[in-house]
Structure formats: structure tokens, C-alpha cells
Amino acid sequence: MSTEADFTYDEATFEITDKILKAFKEQGYIILRGLFNPEELKKIKSVLEETDLVPKHGYGIPDATGRMPKMVLWRAPGTDVTGMVCRCEKVVTTSEKLLGGEVYHYSTKLMMKEPLIGGRQEWHQDYGYWYQNGLLFPDALSVFVAIDRCNKANGCLQVLPGSHKVGRIEHKSVAGQTGADLERVEHLKKVFPLTYMEMEPGDALFFHSNVLHASDANNSSNRRWALIMAYNRKSNNPLESLAPPFPRYTPLEKVPNSAILDCTNLTDFSGKEFLDPTADKTVKADTSNRSEQATKA
């Protein structure tokens, strides 16, 4: 892992420095270690694990082997604890400074790789998906927050640092997913060193929408859940005809970081606009047996 892009988060002293901006520009990502503290993480997990959010709204996206990572996706933050996470200053303001302008919430998804059965995520750029949803420019990023420990054994994220500089690569359907041209990816692996993003719970990876990334299947006995928030620049408002079912610019009301622990709403998910996967033109989802997605490690 590139040490230039690896930083420790301290809420009392953290600021986006020239060094951090340079790392994001050159590597296409930064890691903020400990962005969410154990108390915040415990509250977030209580929502993800102890409510009907997963069994009611979860679905699978088959990989090329027939195994599938599972997910829940929502398009508006809502007012529950996870909504405060999507809107808190340490996520939103950091995203704005990295992208150089006001952002709005594009989507949040909980990605779930259950022990021994969780599928892989094929090589892709997020912009490979979002281009099809009308984004004219790749002025967007994702924030991958580790809910569980992420390592090679349970299918941690893999990236090609610096690959955002090659621009958008052609994507096509790979099983139920949208994947990048694999011949081109194999050539790019010789240019950009494949890097495993091993992370502890609460760590966060901010990465540019053109960074090539993937993750292997979970062949371990440990669960790998991650919360992934996406933000698009206001100036990059999608083409109206192509945007649905994803949102066009909607002002995002930021909240202080303290709002996560102060929030008492753990179960009311009204206003989150959960995605009906059958309406998503970039995937072919499996919505059968949704209750299975509530499986705990």
C-alpha cells in the first residue's frame, strides 16, 4: 500500500493538507485510519445488524463464478444513524475538498460478503457505471468504510493506484455486474502495482471514480461488510434523461460529526429512497431469498 496516501485521522487536529491533496491527485485515493471511532462504529453496526434494513432491502449481484456479493443501496441519506454518517462533516467536507467543489449524496450501499460464500466484485471503475447514468465528467468519488476487518482472506478491496489517470475504460456486462475490459486491465496491472487495501473497522478509503478496483471472494470464516458512500460534484449534474433511478443534484445538508452519536433514530428509514434493483440498468440483481442476507458472522 502506498504510504504517501495513508493518513491517521484525529478529529481534533485533522485538516486537508497539500500533502493529502497531492496523494489523492497522484494515487487516486487516500486512506484515513480511524475515521469512525469504536463508539460510532458500534452504533452504526446496531442499525445494520439489528433492524430490517438488510432483510427487507438487500439483494445479490452475481459474479462471473455464480457466487454473489450482496448489497443494500439507498439514494437519499434519510434521518437515521446511517443518514448522519452520509451527511457528517468529516465525510462530506473531506469529499468536497478532494473534488474541489460542492458535492451531493449520490448513493450509499452496504456491501456484504458473508463467510465462505461471499462473491467477488469484478474489476471496474465507478465511473464505468455512472457514465451510463448520465454523469458527463468523473468528478465524483466513493468513501469505503470498513465495518469489519478487511484483509486478503475475506476479500478486501484491491486497487491500481494511479489508474484514474487513464480515463474511462470501456465496460461491459460480466454476469450480473458491470466490469472493465479485462484485457486492458491486465496491461494496466503491469503499469500500476496491484495494491490490497487491508483496513481495520472504522478506517475509510476515499477514492476517485476512475480508479480501477476489484475484490476477491470471501473464502474465510470471517464476514466482510463495508459501507460505501458516493458523492458527485454539484457542477457535474447528470443528464436528466439518463439519470434515473439515480439522483440529480439535491442540496446536501451537512451535520456535525457529533450527530452520529446524538442521533436516536435507529429504525425509521423513511426518505432513504432504497433502490429497486430491477430499475438499475447497470446490474442484473438476484432478489430471491432476501432474508438470507441478514446472516451474521
From TrEMBL:
It holds the Pfam family PhyH. Residues 273-297 are annotated as: Disordered. Its cofactor is Fe cation. It comes from the Eukaryota. This is Ectoine hydroxylase. The lineage of its organism: Eukaryota, Metazoa, Spiralia, Lophotrochozoa, Mollusca.
